Amino acid sequence: MLRYATDWLAVYREQVNALNVYPVPDGDTGTNMHLTMQSVRRELDTCDENSMPGVARAISYGALLGARGNSGVILSQLLKGFAEAIRDAREIDGALLSRAFQAAQKTGYGAVMKPVEGTILTVARGVAEGAQQGGTPAEVLEHALIRGQDLLDQTPEMLPALKQAGVIDSGGQGYLYIVQGMLAQLRGDALPPAPEITSYAQQQFENEEFGFCTEFLMSDATKPIEEIRELVSPFGDSLLVVGAEGYVKGHIHTNEPDQLLATVGRHGRMLKTKVEDMSEQHTEILGMAGAAARAEEEIAPSGLVAVASGYGLVKLFRSLGARIVSGGQTANPSVQDIVDAVKSVSAEKVVILPNNKNVLMAAEKAMELMDGRAVVIPTRTLGQGIGAALAFSPETPAEDLREVMEGASQAVTTFEVTRASRTTSITTKTGATLAIAEGDVIGLQDDELVQAGGSPEDSVLAMLNQGYNGQEIVTIFGGPQKTQEDLEALTARIQEAFPMVEVEAHAGGPDLYDYLVTLE
After folding, report:
1. For the chain (length 520 residues), average pLDDT per consecutive 10?
2. Rounded CA gap, 334 and 42, in Å?
3. Which of 160, 89, 80, 81 is nearest to 119 (CA)?
């Protein structure tokens, strides 16, 4: 049922995005809820389906691991409550399904510091109320949908932003689509065609006070969830800090994402972060909203799609004209993610920058599916992607750009500083043997391991000493746990060692990296 509900929600994903105006009009509620459900499905695909505790853990863990955005984090808590209710059962009848929906809404409300009516929580309450009627699972779901729809229709009267835009709540609509998908699976209903999107509610709204939607996933937390929530709360609003299966997930809208992540990172092992510039998201949504109106106008010869993570890097690629696909190392986007991004770009042909060797195959498959409307530049690092993007011109045909962008990508040297995930011994290309312990700092030059040991800053200097060959510009992107002071100190060390180069430093590097450095 949950697998099918994931596909059902996918049909309506853009429709849910188009409704999204609360808590901010960033137009990604449908995408975030679908990504959360996809993560649940991945865990279900690998769990023991004959063990209800295993299935329940897959639902709870998968939802938290993949939770994206305000709506996705709340959905993860609804699914957590649902999973806890079924964990010890051998089978699910109508009565247990009803109790599971009631547990879902209770956990969802409990996860939010200041619950607001007119949101997904209100609809979850309606679903739980309706689920108390009916005998069979199908009847329970039917009544849940009726009452859930009743409260969803009332959401514009509960939230002024919804009434202003003339829409129902997007998260609540997404939740009902999930319940619809569960019922459709029981009935054997086929997936419907995707509805045509003709308008986006975000067009009526300006950007919000806080500019960055910031998320983190942490393990081995040294403080209780309540204390981490208090630690985070001064940084902004739309705050959610939740936990399941030994992990802590956080979501907040803030103007200080780098400082927030550095603060939280001192109290656990940071596994994943995501920072989205909501003003850029808003602009992108408005561009999509006008795509239909521009359909008959003259379109640019070339568009650009780039795979990237880390808000500093995402901001840079966007400034160079790219539509972003979120992902990279350890978080590879799907072929469909790339295809969707290409389709959203108004251009005769679209250039794709995979920016990671593990994404290259998905990018090439997406190119095949686009029937000649896309070109892949085989960038294997984010540094190569930056070099290629700098050479991009929307007025030049994509085929003519291929050679110049590939050449520009090869002119950039990329250094990455991260931590070893296991103990091993590696022989480098130069013949040196590196004995590496789990957790050691390691340095990669153009995706090849060349250095190990010392501090992250030492690693950067060591690789620059090896790889510098008269280049003019060093650009540093600090990872989620690096502060502005760290960046300034490293900049000073580089300028002292290489007085002839220009050094630029930015926050917002990719997840799981201390530094990403380019040399050009």
Report:
1. 94 85 60 90 90 95 86 93 96 96 95 87 97 95 97 92 84 96 96 78 49 82 88 84 82 81 81 70 48 53 91 87 80 79 85 92 91 92 94 93 94 93 84 87 91 93 92 92 90 94 90 90
2. 13
3. 160
Nearest of 210, 215, 217 to residue 254 by alpha carbon: 210
The continuous run of DSSP H or E covering 448 comes out as: strand 448-452
Q: Amino acid identity of 424? A: T
CB within 8 Å of 277: residues ≥ 6 apart: 211, 212, 311, 314, 315, 318
The closest alpha carbon to 339, from 379, 369, 303, 295, belongs to 369
3-state DSSP: the chain helix, strand, coil percent, rounded to 5? 50, 20, 30
Query: How far apart are alpha carbons 386 and 365 in whole angstroms?
Result: 22
DSSP three-state, residue 68: coil
Q: Is 81 helix (H, G, I), strand (E, B) or coil?
A: helix
Alpha-carbon span 119 to 278, nearest angstrom = 20
Which amino acid is residue 143, in one-letter code?
A: H
